[in-house]
Design brief:
Layout (H helix, E strand, L loop, with lengths): L2 E6 L12 H8 L8 E6 L2 E3 L2 E2 L9 H7 L13 E5 L2 E8 L8 E4 L3 E8 L3 E4 L3 E10 L4 E4 L3 E9 L3 E4 L3 E8 L13 H6 L21 H9 L8 H7 L14 H8 L10 E6 L2 E6 L2 E2 L5 E2 L1 E7 L3 E11 L4 H10 L5 E13 L2 E2 L3 E2 L6 H26 L3 H9 L2 H8 L2 H6 L11 E3 L2 E6 L2 E3 L2 E3 L1 E8 L13 E9 L7 E7 L7 E2 L5 H38 L20 H33 L5 H12 L11 H14 L2 H10 L8 H7 L3 E6 L5 E5 L8 E6 L2 E5 L4 E4 L5 E5 L3 E6 L5 E6 L24 E4 L5 E6 L2 E6 L6 E5 L15 E6 L2 E6 L5 E4 L5 E5 L5 E5 L4 E5 L5 E7 L5 E8 L2 E8 L14 E3 L4 E7 L2 E6 L3 E6 L4 E6 L4 E6 L5 E6 L3 E7 L14 E8 L8 E2 L1
Parallel strand pairs: 2-5, 3-6, 4-6, 5-7, 6-8, 7-9, 8-10, 9-11, 10-12, 11-13, 12-14
Antiparallel strand pairs: 1-2, 15-16, 16-19, 17-18, 19-20, 20-21, 21-22, 21-23, 24-25, 25-28, 26-27, 28-29, 29-30, 30-31, 32-33, 33-34, 34-35, 36-37, 37-38, 38-39, 40-41, 41-42, 42-43, 44-45, 46-47, 47-48, 48-49, 50-51, 51-52, 52-53, 54-55, 55-56, 56-57, 58-59, 59-60, 60-61, 61-62
Helix pairs in contact: 13-14
Length: about 1050
């Protein structure tokens, strides 16, 4: 009976294998891991399963072994290491979920397992490791060391997993992407699609980036933990993908192997050549013959690695040297002259997409070419072993292809509305197909085009490598195309074709092309399954929408009598729904608010002891409740449409009182269909001006809103307002004018920049449309200068003098970047000519209220402070990765500079008044260390930040949190009245929200702690016929 105990790692250090990294780490730094906990088991161990994420979980076999049947105290967490001083047998699976770190396992004897799916730990077996079915090691943080040999049916090593095996290695199906050894998936990943059944495939993956991305590790884990196998039986695998392992004597480039290659059954009857391809390599097999031009051809293999190498491997038959009498006798007697096989090996390399001269190929004189040729040659042998295996087994994959992909099935699939209504023009690149995962899908309907009849076709394409010099765009895409040709009598003919590159002509798919057929089958099944599921979902969605539309109506329409009760306007079903909606809304908001306040409290007490830290972790790990209103959100949205069409204030108010907006019930809809909104300007007379659509969107337009009134402003292409709120800058797309009040008297006129002003010669960009966009405008109070931002930079426009357009950012251009980098440039076709323009990311600017300073920055700069003339005053490092947003405090004495990383960020509060060139960290403390800021507004002593998570955060100028308010999607613009009583918040999700400050406490229907209540919400979604008023 084995015994188990918990002890410090130092107590068992002497028993650890000296070559394990744990022992080596202890030897280098004695105290490094010495106190980590080890579960030490002495004796042979047999358990039904072992999960290394929590090996001592309650009810687990090792927990029972440790407690020995006694009521011992529970361990506080998983041990660092499980050390077994004996043999280990696991009747089920050894697994771990976490590939970034889990309990390590060292077995000082043998280990026998049924399945093992591991990754985040050291797995060390001093004896032999036997895995009855699947061994899958994945991830750079784990490794397998075996000293006594490995036996497994299926072994899969992916994702930089570390593998070291000493002793004999017997694996029936080896897929090893980490050791650089020959394996079954070396030249095509399709064997994984054969070994693992479709339920373990992960989405629609092209297999070009490794096996792990093709498979769903969580589903494999779930299967082996349930006691099932995730792999097909050996008999099934061999039946589908047989290989003629003994076809070649070895893998050498030799006369014998070349002759074997060119005489395989891939060559059709009466044919002398055959072709094939894999990855970026294609090859031509040629048997000795005299071609149509009368030229003799040798037995040869011609291999091309696309625009990198050509290799010609040939066997010629040279006459043996004989005397004159012997040759005369042979001629008289009609005998053939004896010949000797001669090997010819030559190669040529490509430069700039063009082939060089042919040179002899040998390992000593051209080692790089020899290495490349050896790899490509092994790929050809792999292709031929599979091809001959298919031939001798009577082409099982091709028979399956013909049986499954029938003309009827293809016709039925390609007749779905996505092909006939949405992507229905084979000759229009915008309407001939779409990407479904890694696979491009397109179908041609039977038609006449330019007087020529065309039959039905389905094309599946994927990215195969990279374009080479001289290639057209997207040339590195391989494709399979299934053509359906109707017959005069009998069933339609189905033709399967393929092309390695876009520039290649499609050719019939050989019956023996095992990997290609397996890939085509896998692609088709996955694509058809997803597209049909989407179609069924759309059908169900449309049916539900029709049901809701028929059910949602009003009992009375405007104008409504003032004393008319709501029950006379909304049917009883909607009145009942309203009661539930409002009750669910209040309970949901209360639950979220309580959770957030608990997190706030935990954060405030951070560092006060273990109890608080554990409590904080518990809160962080708990999932927030879901909004129960999601279930009926579609019905309420339909009612919002009906109400909105009437544009009646009374009806709108009744609806809003009955159904408070629920941002979290519509969060996915807003993310998918929302239109960017911003900037937003509220005028003194109650009108609100806003741009609907992102600056790069050709359909973006400005609107004027007042109450429920919506007025488009088609002539307006850009708008900005001065710090004193009186001067407006307006653009009509041709020039800019400043006005005293919106649309008031003109104060000055300005030319638009071109986008290439003040650039050094090594920044080779052109003027163009991006340079004339007005993404943001800020006029100065006097209307004589305007700040303009667009993707090409930030400019100061002046109405007088010789410097009408002055570049403010960027002003410095290093030879090695960043503004010469391709990511900061954009190609665009203008009037038939392709030009390159600057296109910077995260550009932002701000003008201080006193107009003394300008803040600028972009993703690749620091935070930069300029004076009013554009001269650099100071520069500050970002606290996070990339400068993203800037604003000044209400009194202009502080610059709030935000930088971001992913969806988080940091904001510095930098003193400005003294024009400091060097600001110490203590002089510019973080104002906020959580938010990625997209928009801001200020009041005396307060700044409101709009973040990526859809929240407004009000902070004091010294960083004290004041309140927060949930809008529901990433903020894009903020507008606040001078007295702070009114706030307009716009978002990427298509929301324009009107908030009013109230004295009655927190809004019970709004998540947050703000003193604001929502009084109106405009919704601009791309799938709505018109804007919705809520």
């Amino acid at each position: 009976m084995p015994t188990a105990r918990l002890c410090p790692l130092a107590d068992v250090a002497a028993r650890l294998p000296a070559d394990s990294w744990i022992a080596q780490r202890l030897a280098e730094a004695t105290d490094a891991l010495a106190t980590d906990t080890v579960l030490c088991i002495t004796g042979d161990v047999q358990v039904p399963e072992l999960h290394l994420d929590a090996p001592l979980a309650s009810g687990g076999p090792l927990r029972a072994l440790l407690q020995g049947g006694i009521d011992a105290p529970a361990p506080t967490g998983p041990p660092f290491l499980v050390l077994i001083e004996g043999h280990l047998q696991i009747d089920g699976a050894l697994t771990c979920d976490d590939t970034d770190g889990a309990t390590h396992l060292i077995v000082l004897g043998d280990a026998r397992l049924h399945n093992a799916v591991v990754g985040g730990q050291l797995l060390y077996v001093q004896g032999a490791l036997q895995v009855a079915d699947l061994l899958w090691g994945h991830g750079p943080h784990g490794g397998l060391t075996v000293r006594g040999g490995l036996t497994a049916r299926v072994a899969l090593f992916t994702g930089e997993y570390k593998v070291e095996i000493a002793g004999p290695e017997q694996v029936e199906f080896l897929m090893d992407e980490v050791r650089g050894v020959p394996h079954l998936a070396e030249f095509a990943s399709e064997i994984a699609g054969i070994v693992f059944t479709p339920e373990f495939h992960d989405g629609i993956d092209d297999g070009e980036h490794g096996i792990s991305s093709m498979l769903s590790r969580p589903r494999v884990l779930a299967a082996v933990r349930a006691g099932d196998n995730a792999t097909r039986s050996s008999a099934e695998i061999h039946a589908l993908m047989p290989q003629e392992a003994g076809l070649f004597a070895d893998e050498a480039i030799s006369v014998r192997n070349i002759l074997t290659a060119v005489h395989t059954p891939v060559m059709g009857p009466k044919e002398h050549t055959a072709t094939g391809w894999f990855q970026q390599t294609d090859f031509l097999l040629c048997q000795r013959h005299v071609d149509a031009d009368g030229d003799p051809r040798d037995d040869s293999v011609f291999i091309t690695v696309w625009k990198t190498w050509d290799f010609y491997l040939a066997v010629s038959q040279e006459p043996e040297r004989q005397g004159l009498l012997a040759r005369l006798a042979a001629a008289v007697q009609g005998r053939k002259v004896p010949t000797t096989a001669q090997l010819t090996l030559v190669h040529r390399a490509y430069q700039g997409g063009q082939p060089g001269e042919w040179l002899p190929l040998a390992p000593d004189t051209s080692p790089q070419a020899w290495q490349a040729c050896t790899l490509a040659w092994r790929g050809v042998l792999d292709y031929l072993r599979k091809a001959v295996g298919q031939h001798r087994a009577r082409y099982p994959l091709y028979q399956r292809l013909r049986a499954e992909l029938t003309a009827e099935r293809i016709e039925d699939f390609t007749s779905l509305p996505v092909f006939t209504e949405r992507y229905n023009d084979w000759w229009d690149s915008d309407k001939n197909g779409w990407w479904e995962g890694d696979v491009w899908v397109g179908a041609r309907q039977p038609c006449m085009h330019e007087g020529e009849p065309w039959g039905r076709a389905l094309k599946l394409s994927w990215e195969n490598g990279d374009e080479a010099p001289g290639d057209d765009d997207d040339n590195a895409h391989s494709a399979y195309q299934i053509n359906i040709e109707p017959a005069l009598a009998g069933p339609a003919a189905v033709e399967f074709t393929s092309a390695q590159r876009q520039s290649d002509a499609r050719t019939p798919l050989p019956r023996s092309a095992a990997d290609h057929i397996a890939r085509l089958l896998r692609f088709y099944v996955a694509v058809e399954g997803r597209v049909r599921a989407q179609h069924e979902h759309e059908q169900a969605h449309q049916a539900e929408a029709r049901r809701i539309e028929a059910a949602v109506h009003l009992l009375a329409t405007p104008p409504l009598a003032p004393d008319l009760p709501d029950a006379a306007v909304f049917p009883v079903e909607l009145m009942t729904l309203s009661d539930q909606w409002q009750a669910d809304g209040q309970s949901y908001v209360a639950a979220i608010r309580a959770r957030q306040l608990a997190l706030d409290a935990a954060e405030a007490h951070e560092g006060n002891g273990d109890a608080e830290e554990e409590q904080e972790e518990e809160h962080d790990d708990s999932d927030p409740p879901a909004d129960p209103r999601k279930a009926v959100a579609a019905t309420v949205l339909q009612l919002a449409r009906v109400v909105s069409t009437h544009a009646d204030e009374d009806l709108a108010d009744r609806f809003r009182q009955r159904f408070a907006f629920a941002p979290d019930a519509f969060v996915r809809h807003a993310a998918n269909a929302g239109r960017f909104i911003g900037p937003v300007f509220a005028l003194d007379d109650g009108r609100v001006l806003a741009r609907i659509g992102a600056p790069y969107d050709d359909t973006a337009h400005w609107v004027e809103l007042q109450g429920l009134r919506y007025v488009p402003l088609p002539a307006l292409r850009g708008l900005g307002r001065s710090p004193n709120r009186r001067c407006f800058a307006q653009s009509d797309g041709q020039h800019i004018t400043t006005h005293d009040g919106f649309a008031g008297p003109v104060m000055a006129r300005f030319a638009l920049p071109q986008g290439n002003e003040a650039l050094p010669p090594h920044v080779q960009v052109s003027p163009g449309p991006l340079g004339q966009r007005c993404d943001e405008l800020i006029p100065f109070n006097d209307g004589q200068r305007v700040l303009l931002r667009n993707p090409t930079g930030i400019y100061l426009l002046s109405s007088q003098g010789n410097h009408g357009v002055q570049r403010l950012h960027p002003q410095t251009f290093d030879d090695d970047g960043p503004y010469t980098w391709p990511k900061n440039q954009q190609d665009e076709t203008v009037n038939g000519t392709e030009i390159t323009m600057l296109a910077l990311d995260m550009l932002h600017m701000a003008l201080s209220p006193d107009e003394r300073h300008i803040a600028v920055g972009d993703q690749d700069s620091n935070h930069i402070l300029l004076d009013a003339k554009g001269k650099r005053v100071a520069e500050y490092e970002a606290l996070s990765s990339y400068p993203h947003h800037a604003t000044f405090s209400h009194d202009g004495t502080r610059l709030f500079a935000n930088s971001c990383h992913l969806y988080g960020g940091n904001t510095r509060a930098i003193p400005v008044g003294c024009a400091l060139h060097d600001v110490a960290d203590e002089d510019a403390p973080p104002l906020d260390e959580r938010c990625r800021v997209y928009a801001s507004a200020t009041l005396p002593g307060m700044v409101v930040l709009g973040d990526a998570d859809g929240y407004l955060h009000a902070l004091s100028d010294d960083g004290r949190p004041l309140w927060r308010h949930h809008i529901g999607s990433t903020l894009s613009a903020l507008e606040m009245s001078p007295d702070g009583s009114t706030l307009w918040a716009a978002s990427y999700g298509g929301y324009l929200v009107h908030l009013e400050r109230v004295e009655t406490g927190m809004d019970p229907y709004s998540i947050g702690t703000s003193p604001y209540a929502e009084v109106r919400r405009w919704i601009f979604w791309t799938d709505e016929a018109a804007a919705l008023r809520w």
